[in-house]
């Protein structure tokens, strides 16, 4: 038999090592997630009346009517939903927002909800793409941009909103500009007795994974627990976007959500509301398999991660109203709101 040269052996060995570096750790993680999805949730792992739902822009731009408000109120009856995150942006890259043009019916919406659903809080969902991964995008390291976002947030509250909800993506773990923005805006919202909340990326499921992803693709996906805590400590409420997870099977997705829930509980200060995201939409691509990321799996995963914890300020956040089906709503009610 002819011996392989060192070069030929290297050409085979190097790709093999790369494959093993990817598949072996993922295989271990997959096994961990599958185990985390086993067993039965605690009987007490049900809604605590702290849930939320993201609502689309149609509610503030004139496409919705009083009849839609009535239908929404009926839809929310018998659920644990307390907060509505209503898309009021998007923010301009410089932090400004032409309110009269973008959300002309915001005042009508907040007043209508407060009249029809007096126990519901309405938060303005403000978002934009963020540098350095998105360019052009908002530069949170720019003090002038942060000042304009703060001014915009105050003007939005003047439209009758009860709070501000930021969804700025993609936010790299460790971003100092985001922490400075939260400190600045929180000073304003606290003075106005309005809650500040954020939509947060998922937590790094294993040491080094985000670093590898960032090095290979220039993009990040996860936050460290320490940075998650830094962010959570600056707000009243944090909602983990626990969907678009790249998991191919329902059991792996559910186990992943269970792991995320456990880590988020550890990373979130006791006085801060923690919500875990639930996919109320269907997509089928590399990052989101519709057959895997189901409402049932997300709810069960959150329940398993919650365990027997009696933490009252815990809930689920449903994304998003305009893509939700009757089956999504039924699954949420039957699996999470069974105590109501």
List the SSEs and their pairings.
Blueprint: H1 6-36, E1 51-55, H2 66-76, E2 81-87, H3 99-102, H4 106-116, E3 121-129, H5 143-157, E4 163-169, H6 176-191, E5 196-200, E6 202-203, H7 209-217, E7 222-223, H8 225-232, E8 237-240, H9 250-267, E9 273-279, H10 295-306, E10 314-319, H11 326-336
Parallel strand pairs: 1-2, 1-10, 2-3, 3-4, 4-5, 5-8, 6-7, 8-9, 9-10
Helix pairs in contact: 1-9, 2-4, 5-6, 8-9, 9-10, 10-11
What does this structure look like?
It contains eleven helices and ten strands. It is an alpha/beta fold and 340 residues long. The chain has an eight-stranded parallel beta barrel, surrounded by six helices. The longest helix is centred in the first third of the chain and has 31 residues. The radius of gyration is 21 Å and the shape is globular. The N terminus is likely disordered.
Quick recap:
This protein is an alpha/beta fold. Helix content is 43%, strand content 16%.
Number of extended strands:
10
Secondary-structure element series: HEHEHHEHEHEEHEHEHEHEH
Number of helices: 11
Q: Mean of the pLDDT scores?
A: 92
| Overall geometry | globular
Class inferred from helices and paired strands: alpha/beta
Rounded to the nearest angstrom, the distance between the terminal CA atoms is 74 Å
Q: Provide the helix percentage.
A: 40-55%
Largest sheet, spatial ordering of strands: 1-2-3-4-5-8-9-10
